[in-house]
Design goal:
The protein is α+β, with helices and mostly antiparallel strands. The chain has five helices and eight strands; from the N terminus they run ββββββββααααα.
Amino acid sequence: MSERKVLTKYYPPDFDPSKIVRTRAPRGDVPAGPKVQTVRLMAPFSMKCTSCGEYIYKGRKFNARKETTDEKYYSISIFRFYIRCTRCSAEITFKTDPKGMDYTCERGAKRNFEVWRANGETPAGETDEERLDRLEAEMGEKSAMEELEAKVVDAKQEMAIADALDEVRTRNARTERAGGKEVGDLIREEIDAEKRRLEDEDEELARRAFMTETGERVRRIGEGEGEEEGASLLPAAKKDTSLMPPPSVPTFKRVIKKKKDLGASLGIKKKPTLV
């Protein structure tokens, strides 16, 4: 494998170093290169094709032809670029603008956003009549937008006022129904009324529970009658308790259960032991 870094060079036998002369061209007389070159670039601004209406966004890559024009801004050369539309392949041309530090679209497309309009500057080559027409059109668009925005704001205000009026009317109607009382008093009255209603329902249920099927009310036993009846019931209770057998005393003795002989049920007989 040969060396990558060549340390020695080959000189032919007829090599004459005196024939090699270093020449420098005077400043300004540099030989120009090819006037048209093929370069790879990105679209410097978003544009719309005038042939098919295709939108080309900023930063789209193209294989373009770069042309050096005869125009100059002071000593800065101006270049022209030729690209093709991505949809209809129509030719689009734009060139550099050193004065405005931007690009100028010449033909084949229309620029979507123009920086000079955002900055309030006047484009190059625009006459007074064109400038007046442009300002009138911009003022017309601006006034239409302002009118639309004002209408939207007025509609929002009207809706807010209507909501506020509805709320006031509802509050006034509630106050009139309450007879001029405050909200706290109304709430307390409602709570007391609910309590009374529940108490009435409980009383009605108790009254129905202590009524017979015929509708008569069950009488309560008086104090004297209750004592006599209780005294008459005591000896009977004592007699009943005397007749009952005494309770069995629990024992905790371990009881051994006899094992069941499962062999007899299966037909198995055990031989008697000889001992």
